[in-house]
């Protein structure tokens, strides 16, 4: 077996390291067959089956390899890609907006400092913006035109009907460029899984699950998880989309509400209390796809044990029954205790435990970022998530020490994992009672459709 040291081609040219502002290191790109030493590999990684847009468009929906040479090395058991580009720093949300785009940069810096982007099987890669024709597979041309025009200062009242220019989705310079570049990362990740280049991919820039075909909402303009799921489904994959953001993944559920090749499961806070006001137990899909959209609303104060119980009693049996070819995970970290926009009391341990259970399926995983408005806690959760996703969670640095959720601060005290929170008995009783009712209701509505006992 051999591995490749490869240069990646984006849009109109090859960029290495910080050249032209696009981040790419010479990275490991593995192939299961040998080539004569020094020959070009000539391998492409398109964003969707069937090719990529021309370079003249200045866009790409995936990655292309050129000038590759190979060296003798054993193939690792698991191949993981961390997608990152400092290019997105050029397009920050307004300074008073809750969405902080520095989270991806800080996550990258943290996992890199721990050595989790080096060594056999673990690589980092850049990406280019999503191509227009790919974006139009979910978003309307009218909406994309309005979004691009507003990003360049051409705003009018019509865009308000599309959710553009609200307090949640403000107009700011580079709004369109940021959105299509983040979507390009998710599409590049989907391409890597489709072509067998990786077993696991993490795009901390992504997770904009609230965007609709012609409406921005909830800090989201382009729905990259929906586009990623579409790419995988078009490649003939059975896709299970699993959303652990504290807000219901409404845009993705809408995209696949009438399809049986993509199952969506969302764990989120009670929609009677929290945006977007959707994701009730009774929202199960439409037509022949009834039962393929699963919503698990959680009561205020839900804690690790209760959260894990809901996963094990509802999500896990459905995953086993559905038998997906690939998982797409929206890894919003706003369910953590002390998040300013939500009311759950989770620690990052429960996220790590769930990711560990999902890895036992031995299926490819595409994971994106998402919500998370306590920046330091979110960064630590994402770094821990990457360690689990890439099979490095037995690292002593990830398991040692206390984290910010327990300490009530953003200080990092030597480790990524939080200490367990002490939950009062009265809170446990209230959460358990509410969640038991929810679980029974979901089972009665959905389980029989999949041949499971309620």
Main β-sheet, in a few words?
Answer: 8 strands, parallel
Using the alpha-carbon principal axes, give the shape.
globular
Strand order of the largest sheet: 7-6-8-13-12-9-10-11
- CATH class, named Alpha Beta
Secondary structure category: alpha/beta
Strand content: 5-15%
How many E strands? 13
Helicity level: 25-40%
Q: Which architecture per CATH?
A: 3-Layer(aba) Sandwich
Walk me through what this model shows.
Helices cover 31% and strands 15% of the residues. By secondary structure, the chain is α/β, with parallel strands linked by helices. The protein starts with a strand and ends in an 8-residue tail after the last helix. 52% of the residues are buried.
Summarize the structure.
By secondary structure, the protein is an alpha/beta fold. Helix content is 31%, strand content 15%.
Key terms:
12 helices, 454 residues, 13 strands, alpha/beta, single chain, Arginase, Chain A, five-stranded antiparallel sheet, globular, eight-stranded parallel sheet
């Amino acid at each position: 077996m051999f591995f490749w040291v490869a240069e990646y081609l984006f849009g109109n040219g090859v960029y290495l390291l910080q050249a032209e502002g696009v981040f790419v290191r010479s990275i490991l790109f593995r192939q299961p067959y040998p080539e004569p030493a020094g020959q070009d590999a000539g391998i492409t990684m398109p964003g969707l089956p069937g090719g990529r847009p021309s370079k003249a468009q200045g866009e790409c929906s995936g990655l292309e390899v050129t000038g590759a040479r190979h060296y003798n090395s054993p193939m690792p058991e698991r191949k993981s890609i961390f997608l990152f580009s400092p290019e997105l720093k050029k397009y920050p949300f307004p300074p008073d907006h809750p969405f902080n785009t520095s989270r991806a940069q800080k996550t990258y810096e943290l996992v890199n400092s721990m050595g989790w982007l080096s060594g056999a099987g673990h690589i980092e890669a850049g990406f280019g913006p999503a191509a227009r024709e790919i974006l139009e597979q979910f978003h309307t041309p009218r909406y994309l035109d309005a979004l691009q025009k507003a990003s360049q200062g051409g705003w009018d009242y019509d865009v308000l009907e599309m959710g553009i220019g609200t307090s949640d989705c403000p107009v700011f310079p580079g709004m369109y460029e940021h959105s299509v570049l983040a979507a390009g990362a998710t599409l590049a990740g989907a391409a890597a899984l489709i072509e067998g280049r990786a077993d696991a991919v993490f795009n901390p820039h992504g997770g904009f699950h609230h965007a609709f075909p012609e409406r921005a909402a909830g800090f989201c303009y382009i729905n990259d998880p929906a586009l990623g799921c579409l790419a995988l489904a078009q490649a003939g994959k059975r896709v299970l989309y699993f959303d652990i953001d504290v807000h219901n993944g409404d845009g993705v559920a809408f995209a696949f509400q009438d399809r049986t090749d993509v199952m969506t499961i969302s764990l989120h806070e009670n929609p009677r209390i929290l945006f977007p006001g959707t994701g009730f137990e009774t929202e199960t899909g439409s037509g022949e796809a009834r039962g393929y959209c699963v919503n698990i609303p959680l009561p205020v104060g839900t804690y690790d044990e209760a959260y894990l119980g809901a996963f094990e009693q509802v999500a896990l049996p459905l995953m086993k029954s559905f038998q997906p070819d690939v998982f797409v995970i929206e890894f919003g970290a706003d369910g953590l205790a002390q998040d300013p926009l939500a009311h759950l009391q989770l620690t990052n341990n429960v996220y790590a435990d769930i990711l560990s259970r999902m890895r036992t399926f031995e299926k490819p995983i595409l994971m994106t970022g998402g919500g998370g408005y306590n920046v330091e806690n979110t960064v630590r959760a994402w770094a821990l998530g990457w360690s689990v996703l890439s099979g490095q969670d037995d690292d002593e640095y990830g398991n040692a020490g206390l984290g910010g959720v327990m300490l009530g601060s953003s200080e990092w005290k030597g480790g990524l994992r939080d200490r367990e929170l002490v939950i009062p008995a009265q809170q446990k009783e209230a959460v358990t009672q509410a969640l038991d009712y929810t679980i029974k209701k979901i089972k009665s509505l959905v389980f029989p459709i999949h041949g499971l006992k309620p």
